[in-house]
Amino acid sequence: MKPRVAVVTDSNSGISVAEGEHMGVYVVPMPINIDGKVYFEGLNLSQEYFYQRLTAGAEMFTSQPSPADTLELWNRILRGYDQLVYIPMSAGLSSTYATARMMAEDYQGKVQVVDNRRISVTQCQSVRDAMSMVKQGMDAKTIRETLEEQAADASIFLMVDTLKYLRRGGRVSGVEAFAGAMLNIKPVLSIGEGKLEAVGKVRGVKAARVMMLDKLQQELDGRLKPLYESGHLAVKIACSQVSDQLREEWKTQVMEYFHLEEEIECADLTLSVACHTGPGVLGVGAVRI
Prior knowledge:
The chain is of the alpha/beta class.
């Protein structure tokens, strides 16, 4: 008899609690502390309010979900399912995975925590893949192992509009941030192997956009080439607090660069990343489908 397996993720996937209910996925809303008060992404914290407070200079930081809340959710789910697969954000970006993995040891294999090494649109794809495997009748352990084997089959590049927020998080110095503002420097970051890393700096938005596309093309010509040529890779974009016009311009540029005929998916960058990057971010990535 096939086990009844539930799929659980967090809001770093870009899936809200309400969207998860519609999809049949359980979503843990990520907590964000703003001026000493804890908010939960997608519940009592909207994108609009978050960016309003961020740009106003509010003190904010992210944290992992409460272990007590996570355990309560797992226990509630397991009253109706035999097993569950938990897909948190990348272990390289948060301690959420390590904490969940430790807690899962008490569940005799019924809770499988995925070392996903993904966030945003690529993490969302992992959730979709897990749901597909559930429908195929796979158990939670097999789903976890498959997702971990495929975790590196993805890549994301981001253009940061200002160094201000990277400075707040200690990722660049005050001198670098000041010089970057004066010279219109736009850093390009990658989320590869689960970590946020700088891969280049150029002057101006246009140059940064081209760099992101070139960097992704290098991935498609390199380690992701077999997936790309076999049609098992999808290009996606993400943005944070940009105008509708800029969003459409970026979508068009990406589609033209990669000669894509079908409309590509565009998501809002998750707030846990936006805490460090700020508004005005453009991103492009590719993920196994």
